[in-house]
Amino acid sequence: MVTFLASLAFIVAVAALIAHSTDRAGSVDVIDRDAERVRCELAAMLVRNPHHR
How far is CA 18 from CA 2, 9, 25, 35, 40, in A? Predict the structure, then answer.
């Protein structure tokens, strides 16, 4: 049982190390596109309602 838990902890540690050291492909672009869309929508709302500033 102890061997099983030790090997499981080792596997989880290696997986966490690999996940931390590698870049997630494309995730930054998705976040940037989403933020850009929100900024555009907020700017459009301000243009339509200038008296709410």
Answer: 24, 14, 14, 28, 36
- Answering whether pTM is above 0.85, one says no
**33 close to 40: Cβ distance less than 8 angstroms:** no
- Residue 22 phi/psi, 5-degree rounding, is -100, 150
Which tens digit of pLDDT belongs to each residue from 1-45?
889 999 999 999 998 888 777 665 555 555 677 888 888 988 888
What six digits make up the tokens of 37? 């869309």
Do 36 and 42 touch, CB atoms closer than 8 A?
A: no
